[in-house]
Amino acid sequence: MKTSEYSNEQLDQRMRNAGLRPSSARIHVLRYLEKHRNHPTADRIYKALRPDLPSLSRASVYNSLAALERSGLVRPLTMDGDELRYDAHVEDHGHFCCERCGAIHDFPLAPSDAAALCPDGFLARRRDVLVWGLCPGCAEDGADCAK
Amino acid sequence: MKTSEYSNEQLDQRMRNAGLRPSSARIHVLRYLEKHRNHPTADRIYKALRPDLPSLSRASVYNSLAALERSGLVRPLTMDGDELRYDAHVEDHGHFCCERCGAIHDFPLAPSDAAALCPDGFLARRRDVLVWGLCPGCAEDGADCAK
DNA sequence: TTATAATTTTGTAATCATTATAAATTTATT
DNA sequence: AATAAATTTATAATGATTACAAAATTATAA
Fold this sequence. Notes:
2 copies of one chain form a homodimer.
Chain A: H1 8-17, H2 24-35, H3 42-49, H4 58-70, E1 75-77, E2 85-87, E3 93-98, E4 104-108, H5 111-116, E5 123-134, H6 136-139
Parallel strand pairs in A: 3-5
Antiparallel strand pairs in A: 1-2, 3-4
Helix pairs in contact in A: 2-4, 3-4
The first copy, chain A, binds a DNA duplex (30 and 30 nucleotides) through helix 2 and helix 4.
């Protein structure tokens, strides 16, 4: 993972390729999502960016996320409906939510599995697999599972 | 589909079996969800029930849904994070959301497919497969797809 | 570079779904 | 029928998101 992946030039170019004007707020939001793969909420991103960008507004974070989503650079994720999270990992993959510790883990989907997940006659553009249960740490009874 | 499926006695019994006190509001909400398989929101249920139950409060619909969910009689579903919907169909199945007409279609999951959707070492209790794209009606270019 | 137009950001107010609360009602138990 | 426990109601509070207009930024063209 080269640092150039997070350079302004690289992010700038990715946005232009996606047909998105590379504004300052959008670059910061996208870089944050590239670095933090823990599916943060808009508010989490806002609070994390705030110290370095005192002039950043909450509305800009929401606007930036909406623009990035429209352009396919990030995707939304919600396991419960009560928290809208974002993910810069846009290829098909699954999400496992541990009902004990609350952590959300990504997991890969075999392309063949993914392709099977579509009813006949329908045209799939994007998919997500959500699984709830216990993560390995929490599955051992009684063990407390940090994170 | 026998009418007895929606009888108060049948719903009453299902709730007792699930360890839930069968109150009037819960029975009405569950019956509505049994009859309407279009994944309604809490507000939609409230508005639909209101004419026949003028004393029903919004809070009771929310409370009833939370109790029914806790007992495993209904499950929540959200495709976008902006609408929390409910479903009385609790077995594993997939949801296809048409990006053109907005309709949400259920589709079956082969048990073997479903079982495969879990990372190693994790213990799955419940899963959902979300797919976005075009439904058959909307897939034919230019055709307008009602509902 | 400067001027102009288009888009984005900011700060604040408004909206809307959901949750909290306490009193009244209903349901279960004795 | 009396008592206790849980649920419902009505309303207020919360909190995330959206709407809005003015200020700032970005792109385009002279």
